[in-house]
Design a protein that fits this description.
Layout: E1 7-12, E2 24-29, H1 36-44, E3 62-66, E4 70-74, H2 85-99, E5 105-113, H3 120-131, E6 136-141, H4 148-161, E7 170-172, H5 181-207
Parallel strand pairs: 2-4, 2-5, 5-6, 6-7
Antiparallel strand pairs: 1-3, 3-4
Bound molecules: guanosine-5'-diphosphate (GDP) and magnesium ion (MG).
Magnesium ion binds near residues 37 and 53.
Length: about 220
């Protein structure tokens, strides 16, 4: 995986436009304005690979970023109140359709703004991830905006608010200070490496002599 050599891959407004599922994918999901695009830029060290918006509710497509043998997938933000009902429904179908599309999603990174209680949509998404047995972690964004005490209070509250919290790997993250970036990169790289190991094992199988009795 080459996070530093990331490039834009595709923008899909319809499920029929998704690229062929021939690589592993890391999907980033969360409310509009939670910091998905900012996080992808921070991960890749590219200031404007993913468009960061001061105005929420702008991303209406699933955006794929090419990092070598994996895709980083920026899903449209959900739950922006000013988006029309019909557009919100379209985006919800796009997100759930993507998650159900039998792709090689190695990890869903669920983003939650660390300052606030998770929204109903956040909880519904976490419940869906658990039900569908999709591997996921939670990244708490905008950690720089909280003081030490606020942060501790929020973590105690999250434990009450988020289902199965004790079983979920969580990473506080700040695009501003860089907190959490290395931890997240480690998680992604480890999963991408597992995949490379699998491929190596496959290659060995191909070249290994078959049943010696055949020789
Ligand atoms: N202070 C701070 N602001 C952030 C952070 N991450 C995102 N933002 C800001 O939050 C706003 C929304 O970010 P964006 O990445 O467009 O959110 P998206 O809609 O989830 O893609 C922008 O103004 C960002 O600059 C962070 O870690 N710290
Ligand atoms: Mg965005």
């Amino acid at each position: 995986m080459q996070l530093q050599d990331a490039s834009f891959g595709a923008a899909c407004g319809k499920l029929s436009q998704l690229p062929k599922p021939e690589r592993i994918e890391f999907a980033f999901i969360g409310r509009s304005n939670v910091g998905k695009s900012t996080l992808i830029n921070k991960l890749t060290g590219r200031r404007s690979l993913a468009r960061v918006s001061a105005v929420p509710g702008k991303t209406a497509t699933i955006n794929f970023y090419d990092v070598g043998d994996a895709w980083l997938v920026d899903l449209p933000g959900y739950g922006y109140a000013k988006t029309s009902k019909s557009e919100q429904q379209r985006l919800a179908r796009l997100i759930t359709g993507y998650l159900a599309a039998d792709r090689d999603i190695r990890l869903v990174v669920q983003l939650i703004d660390m300052r606030h209680a998770p929204s109903k949509d956040d909880i519904a998404m976490i419940e869906r991830l658990i039900d569908e047995e999709l591997p996921f972690i939670i990244v708490f964004t905008k950690a720089d905006k909280l003081g030490k005490q606020e942060r501790e209070q929020r973590m105690v509250a999250f434990a009450e608010e988020i289902p199965c919290f004790e079983d979920i790997h969580c990473i506080p993250f700040s695009a501003k200070t860089g907190e959490g970036r290395d931890a997240l990169v480690d998680v992604l790289e480890e999963l991408a490496e597992d995949d490379e190991d699998d491929e190596d094992a496959d290659d060995e199988d191909d070249t290994a002599p078959s049943d010696p009795a055949e020789d």
